[in-house]
Amino acid sequence: xxxxxxxxxxxxxxxxxxxxxxxxxxxxxxxxxxxxxHEVYDxxxxxxxxxxxxxxxxxxxxxxxxxxxxxxxxxxxxxAPAGAQGVRDALDILLAKGRIPPEEDLAVAVLTGDGSAYxxxxxxxxxxxxxGLDFLYLCYDNEGYGNTGQQTSPATxxxxxxxxxxxxxxxxxxxxxxxxxxxxxxxxYVATVIGTExxxxxxxxxxxxxxxxxxxxxxxxxxxxxxDFDPQxxxxxxxxxxKTGIWPLKEYENGQVTHTKVPSQRVPVEEYLKKxxxxxxxxxxxxxxxxxxxxxxxxxxxxxxxxxxx
Amino acid sequence: xxxxxxHGRGGQGMKTASRLLGTAFFLAGYQVQDAPxxxxxxxxxxxxxxxxxxxxxxxxxxxxxxxxxxxxxxxxLVPVPMAGVLQGADPHTVMLLNTGESAETWRHRxxxxxxxxxxxxxxxxxxxxxxxxxxxxxxxxxLLGVIPRETLAAALHQELAAHGEAVVQxxxxxxxxxxxxxxxxxxxxxxxxxVGLDRAPAPAWVELPVDPADAAAAAIHAxxxxxxxxxxxxxxxxxxxxxxxxxxxWWVCSEFCPDSAIKVVxxxxxxDYDHCxxxxxxxxxxxxxxxxxxxERQFSEAKA
Lengths: 310, 304
Fold this sequence. Notes:
heterodimer; A: alpha/beta; Rossmann fold; globular; B: alpha/beta; Alpha-Beta Plaits
């Protein structure tokens, strides 16, 4: 395990009690992505510029309304990290020329969904990491193209029904391992988080904020609309994602992957799946034992591979 | 040409309603357009979908401004200006409201000039709301009077088959029950006249002065302006804190609220009802169960 920086977030009561992300956004009621974003923004602070690829969160800032305290830039799905490069360069030039004092410098954060992070924007992200761009990337991963009606994305898990995987077995492919892809670039920091584990999230954002270079965060975003569950279940679904081990909370730095919250006894993954309408066909009219066993086996294999590392 | 507008909240199946009715029209030999309003359609937010149907080719495009039939799945939308429920309604327009109140009450309240009918809104669980779309489509089909019962059923099978037999059957029961319930009013909706270009007003030219770039550019010079948007209107359930039971843990409801709609002042949580969208995460997560979910209707009734 790498050297732990002393965190100021030791317990829940250390988390900020006021929130800087404005209310009144057009995100769905119960949005797990917005939950993660407001928690992240509380830690990052107001001096952050968001570079937002097209997706659900593009609608956060619909002129003349914005929930942010500072600037926001909208890019195509494929080019948010390139946009971040431009903003970072502009800030660096202004700093170098003395046109803004150092205290007016801003942190540059990319904000995209999984369609962009896992798919269309991956090339631009790879390039930005390669150039050592000093930025933070926050991906809200709701495992599909949610803004347009939850079509299959490269983050869609095996067996899930989506607007484009409507057959009796759901999506036949497998969720891409973006954490591993990003970590393979050897950036400063990569982490997975979830809004329903705010303390773990806060510590990771605190750590990332103190670093330089590319820092990339994937937030699993339980999505009432796209995953088909009642909005009040967002936290329960998110907590089950962690307890079942299907969403491992981990971080990468200095070539090492560390799990930050290891479920002591993993809850069977079907407890997570059966809360969601997108997996309902695995339980009714009859249980799809083969698919359920396959999903469980993948989770078990993942954690078996992690033994010895802890 | 028939022009039908379905109003509801995201998640109440208005897009499905328009598809069901559109497909039923098509199977009945009509040319059809059906579309949801494209934009920020969100769970709980006011949305609408529309259908045009005619025996001849349809050249009209865009949102329906002169509806022959307006179907409202959620009566709490009627007084919400942004929902635009009453837009373009005239004495020719039939209004069908899904409501717990009587048609007489609504006629009086709205001073509505045309035919106003009601569907008896059941005090349903939120999870049941998704079936309202099928009810609305079934009722609309009967009011139009040109779609046979079996055509409606065939359209429903065609549109919903991918969701499995149980879902099809549940929707079919709802749609056909509504179809039958409207028997007394069958065919009360008449076709509206074609709206040609000749009826559209000639464009008026507006000279725009050339502004300096810093004034004309789409820049927002203040932070968190989103608070001007009252997303509290999305809510059908209201979380209400029982402060006698609240144990002042302070972070749970406030931290988990996705919408920054719960602030904590001196350890005491306060819910911002102008912006709370009614997701009920706080109700589900409050450790001492000090937050109750109260139907929003009770508050509007108390006010009236």
